[in-house]
Amino acid sequence: MPRIQWDDLPVALRDHLFERVRQRQIAAEDLYALKVWRESGPVAPDGPWFRDFGSFKLCGEGRYPKTFLLRGQVARGQEI
Fold first, then answer.
1. What mean pLDDT comes out for the span 58-78?
2. How far, in whole angstroms, is CA 13 from its chain's centroid?
3. Can you tell me the distance from the alpha carbon of 53 to that of 30, in angstroms, rounded to the nearest whole number?
4. Which among 7, 16, 30, 65 would be 20 to 30 A from 40, CA to CA?
5. Which distant-in-sequence residues (6+ apart) come within 8 Å of 70 by Cβ?
6. pLDDT more than 70, % of the chain
7. DSSP structure string for the chain
8. What pairing do the DSSP bridges indicate for beta strands 56-61 and 48-52?
9. What are the residues facing 59 on neighbouring strands?
């Protein structure tokens, strides 16, 4: 199965993700939890997915991460 892609993201997608991190004011310790998870090489399921980190959710589709949601915002797809 393919892994979630973190490198060589399309420029518009990369910029969107960085903008969402700034807008959502995600704390450094939460970003560290994301980093540790990323380094584990998570598998990319087909279709929409999300990972709940408690204070935020990372949402994606297929191999690409797509956006960050705040706690309480509803994510769609398979939880991974």
1. 93
2. 11
3. 7
4. 16
5. 24, 56, 57
6. 100
7. -PBPP-SS--HHHHHHHHHHHHHHT--HHHHHHHHHHHHT--B--SSEEEEE-SSEEEEEETTEEEEEEETTSPP-SEE-
8. antiparallel
9. 50, 67
Task: Kindly state the tokens that stand for 18.
Answer: 């960085």
Structure tokens at 24: 């959502």
d(CA 22, CA 28): 11
CA distance 48 to 64: 10
The residues facing 56 across adjacent strands are 70
Query: Tokens at residue 77, please?
Result: 């797809």
- The model's pTM is 0.86
